[in-house]
Specification:
This protein has a single domain, classed as Chlorophyll a-b binding protein (Orthogonal Bundle), CATH 1.10.3460. With about 130 residues, the chain is mostly helical. Helix 1 packs across helix 4. The protein is elongated and about 50 Å long. One of its GO terms (biological process) is photosynthesis. It is found in: Plastid, Chloroplast. Keywords: Chlorophyll, Chloroplast, Chromophore, Light-harvesting polypeptide, Photosynthesis, Plastid. InterPro entries: Chloro_AB-bd_pln, Chloroa_b-bind.
């Protein structure tokens, strides 16, 4: 579950910066610096609402699961894959876990990169 939030967070850092660089939503879409982390200073209400939604989802997940089964978000068992068998299901679970961990590291890297030099991620990648 946290890996899925991290996957969304990676996109949530890159896409607004791309649209700000293109001027799609106007010149003041992001702060003058063009970095996604400036949202904490420029729009704290939406930031608070986003964290509130994540907190509600996490609370619902904790209330709906038993303490020994909280590692499983029941994503693979909901019918996404048609009768994969126990071996294939274990393989899918491992891949999902690895993708989530990679997304967590990617998000941490994005945040660190913006904090180090305060330039947009896409600008750092292109230079």
């Amino acid at each position: 579950m946290h890996g899925r939030f991290a996957q969304l967070a990676v996109l949530g850092m890159i896409l607004p910066e791309k649209y700000a660089a293109d001027g799609t939503f106007g010149d003041d879409f992001l702060a003058p610096t063009g970095t996604a982390l400036e949202v904490f200073n420029t729009d704290p209400v939406w930031t608070g609402l986003t964290f509130g939604v994540i907190a509600v989802l996490e609370t619902v997940r904790l209330l709906e699961t038993e303490p020994g089964t909280r590692a499983n978000a029941l994503i693979l068992e909901t019918g996404l894959y048609t009768n994969p068998g126990p071996e294939k299901l274990a393989e899918y679970k491992l891949k999902e876990l690895q993708n989530g961990r990679l997304a967590m590291l990617a998000f941490a890297g994005e945040v660190a990169q913006e904090l180090v030099n305060s330039t947009p991620l896409l600008e750092n990648l292109s230079s």
